DNA sequence: AGCACGCCGACT
DNA sequence: GTCGGCGTGCTC
């Protein structure tokens, strides 16, 4: 008997679907409204568990519902829970005409469960096809996908699209390699530098499930430390998963794992591997051939068997936010996984997000930190140059760069490479008073003024109004300077000032992985900094104004994270490592950098967020769309009693020619956005209410204009 | 989204 | 009696 049977319409189609259709036909003609045929006379169905519950992959229309289908006898063997299937789905009765079935197209789905009876009071259609007998959707993965869908008020089918890669028949046909026996428990290595580091590894190796927020010491040891945690988990006979922000970080942990335990015990899941290779690796994990996974954010769903540890590096990096609906964040997905699988959890970073601090504050995770003298021994010396220094510094105004910075660069270049961190290009140049450096703001809405093209035209980044005659409200000055452009030019000038030294650049389109330990100027945008052999001798951080000037809740935390990430590549103070940050020394993130205290900074931020009712202490959702649609949505949604609606207010029109933000309005269209806030503990109720309201809208039909619902919106003023 | 069902008015 | 317009609701 062939499972290929019935793949095409026409005469080749198996007999039972035809018969089923005929039965439906006769049921209808007998005018029996909704017969309840529990038995199928004539149709050859599977003897045991003849009903398949199927998750139909058709958008958000019928969120999270299963549909029951009859299992024809010839598909019985292959139609196991977790396989991909194709079914007829569509309105109305499937007529039989000229021997062909009509109505309802073939669509994809997952077979979730086999049961004895359906509780659907109507005639069941048959499964059209089992796409392949590979059981891709395990019970655990389904449970995780459902939890993620609930957390983010999204559809189960949407989450499964993120969690299960597209099929490649060739990849499926290849047998996965034989699993290797577990490695032996690794030495603690540089984990010994942390107060509870060795204990954490011991707990993993002995089958425990420790949960930690790890503030990593600056320097390159983090990737090997992550790898040791993975090997310790494997040694206990369980699997491990590490999610990293980009391909370079994946390559480092990959290399560390290979050097600790050789090839064949871990898989690498990244987007740039190509669909077939990626699916092949994914299958090796799903089949249990490989028990450890490192990868970028899509790997957060990797179906590792018997999971003992989930780990995430640098959760503040925004590449951990999924771009596709419902836009889950890797940290939140791994939190759900740790809770569901009762496994270990490790959240590591040189810096510390407010969310990470909250995990410690709530007692859910324990801090994994080094003693103060370890930090002092590993971190570089940090010095600041603020507005006051600049004003007093005659040479700086002429040369556009403070004397202190010149000195640090000159000194550093004597012994090694010097890193210059400049703002990312594509940051719209924001303007400040050339005299007093106060940010130039719109006189109507206080939004940031931005330069338009090459000319002197100014436009507000929020309300879009033109500003023709700006003058500084602080000092009366009327000259402006573009901070971002200034930083780039400064980097160029540095290159000219040290003509004997090579200049390398690393940025968006051309990212360097490493640079040699010889004297060089390395100009890089945040996140693209190459690792220097032996560490940088010095770093110059020039983008303080651009980062801290953003009207964003995370501006301070983000600036600190990027500074710390760059400064972590610099040699320790004892080896002469120096960092100069051009930013106001009274600002809290700047002070946290000088004291090298990212955890303290995050804890203070967390306290303020709690007071102000901001995330992550409260949970927020954003509802956006055309004004009338948003208003209607808010009228009909049955929000939790303790929910508070802020707005709606008009969102800034996306300026024509600027890249459209994911989930934002089309250029030129006016949208409204409301924020909905609930106190701690009501997040699940809020998500459920928003999901129900969305589903109700969809059911009402196509006349309704879509609104976008986003849990944990990233940009709240 | 499709697509069939059904209620109601117009025409043979 | 029967055809067909479009509004409503379902899809196993």
- What characterizes the major β-sheet? 7 strands, parallel
Gyration radius (Cα, Å) is 29 Å
Averaging pLDDT over every residue, what do you get? 85
Tally of separate helices: 21
What proportion strand?
15-25%
Number of strand elements: 31
Strand order of the largest sheet: 10-11-9-12-13-8-14
What's the N-to-C terminus distance? 63 Å
What are the segments in which pLDDT stays under 50 over at least 5 consecutive residues? Answer: 1-42, 92-103
Question: What level of helicity do the residues show?
Answer: 25-40%
Question: Looking at the structure, what is the overall shape?
Answer: globular
User: Would you tell me the structural class of the helices and strands?
Assistant: alpha/beta
Domain Primosomal protein N' 3' DNA-binding: 54-165
Binding site for Zn(2+) 2: 442, 445, 460, 463
Binding site for Zn(2+) 1: 433, 436, 472, 475
Family: Belongs to the helicase family. PriA subfamily.
Question: Could you please describe the fold and organization of this structure?
Answer:
This protein is of the alpha/beta class and 717 residues long. The chain contains 21 helices and 31 strands. A 7-stranded parallel beta sheet has the order 10-11-9-12-13-8-14, sandwiched between helices. Strands 15-27-26-16-24-22 form a 6-stranded parallel beta sheet, sandwiched between helices. A 5-stranded antiparallel beta sheet has the order 2-1-6-3-7, with no helix packed on it. The longest helix is centred in the last third of the chain and has 18 residues, at 683-700. The protein starts with 14 loop residues before the first helix and ends in a 6-residue tail after the last strand.
